[in-house]
What we know:
Elements: E1 9-11, E2 18-20, E3 25-30, E4 44-50, E5 61-67, E6 82-83, E7 88-89, E8 94-95, E9 101-102
Antiparallel strand pairs: 1-2, 2-6, 3-4, 4-5, 5-7, 8-9
Amino acid sequence: MTEAGFGLGMECTAHEGYHLYESDFFTEIVDPLTGEVLPDGVEGEVVLTTLKREGMPLIRYKTGDLSKMMACPCPCGSKLKRLGPIETRINGRLILKNGGSFNPWRFR
């Protein structure tokens, strides 16, 4: 994401999510409709705040990406927070008549 300046995190050898650069970004997962912060393990919109940028800081920047914070520890032993895989974007889902949603990207 170019708005953030560089990557938000990196994937380790365990390949179970992305370890976040917590010293550079404050990352939240929020409900896309209400903006309420969601608990670990619940999918929502990735929102970030830059902590070290001075020229163009981002404050609660809504990325449009859907993911979740991983709740369990990483097998690699790192203590950094982990962001789950980004499966789709908010506008990448199809809304069904019953109010549910369907993600066609899951059938790649």
